[in-house]
Amino acid sequence: xxxxxxxxxxxxxxxxxxxxxxxxxxxxxxxxxxxxxxxxxxxxxxxxxxxxxxxxxxxxxxxxxxxxxxxxxxxxxxxxxxxxxxxxxxxxxxxxxxxxxxxxxxxxxxxxxxxxxxxxxxxxxxxxxxxxxxxxxxxxxxxxxxxxxxxxxxxxxxxxxxxxxxxxxxxxxxxxxxxxxxxxxxxxxxxxxxxxxxxxxxxxxxxxxxxxxxxxxxxxxxxxxxxxxxxxxxxxxxxxxxxxxxxxxxxxxxxxxxxxxxxxxxxxxxxxxxxxxxxxxxxxxxxxxxxxxxxxxxxxxxxxxxxxxxxxxx
Length: 314
Description:
Layout: E1 2-18, H1 24-29, E2 50-52, E3 58-60, E4 73-93, E5 97-110, E6 129-130, E7 137-146, H2 149-152, H3 159-164, E8 167-176, E9 200-201, E10 224-225, E11 245-257, E12 263-271, E13 305-313
Antiparallel strand pairs: 1-4, 2-3, 4-5, 5-6, 5-7, 7-8, 8-11, 9-10, 11-12, 12-13
């Protein structure tokens, strides 16, 4: 048996940032009576439009580099991560059975889990949240049991003994927390054109339906609302998990020796042998409202799959 602490810090990780963000305060000032007659109010997605103020002043867009450049995301090594875990294992080996049991309790946080993540260039702390691969609880058990059929034929000889001996069952069982739900918003309500918008979140009882078969959203979508114009929302990008994993794969094995160098192996395998529904993560795009959209689980991993194989080793 072993018990370990494992942790690491990541610094200067690659992320995608907008090099030419819009100025939300400037955009808000270019609305209503501040503009000349016939001008369109500044709003979401209009950072590269030209505006004429009521006093005749021309404003060449609200992005910091003006109309010379549009949206210009680029890669920077400015992201960070933090991982801490307790890892416990229990291993046993004997003539009839072997097993290795592993349990990990871990938390992983970052502000860019992948190169495709768009970090909030104006305040990177607003992008801090669970890593997209975070699994809080993860139990994996692997095991092999030599079936005692040979004991039933110990008083017999010949073909019966040959057929009965050498059978074993092996398997892997996984019980784990689901992956985090990534909350996002694509309406540029922040008026920055950075693609890092998030809705407002009101803390309350969040997970309301753990059975997606009911046709209801997995989490309470009413807790997420549109943030005020010109602001970033209060929700974290990732702060809770989707449906968990309960999966067992089993295999029935038998090795038939032909000589010292050649043998035949029979395998009957079942993946997800108990046919548990392994639901995938619910949709996190706030703008995709309605049935089948924000908050809903619409897919699952494979059901039970079985196969038989006969292999010749030489």
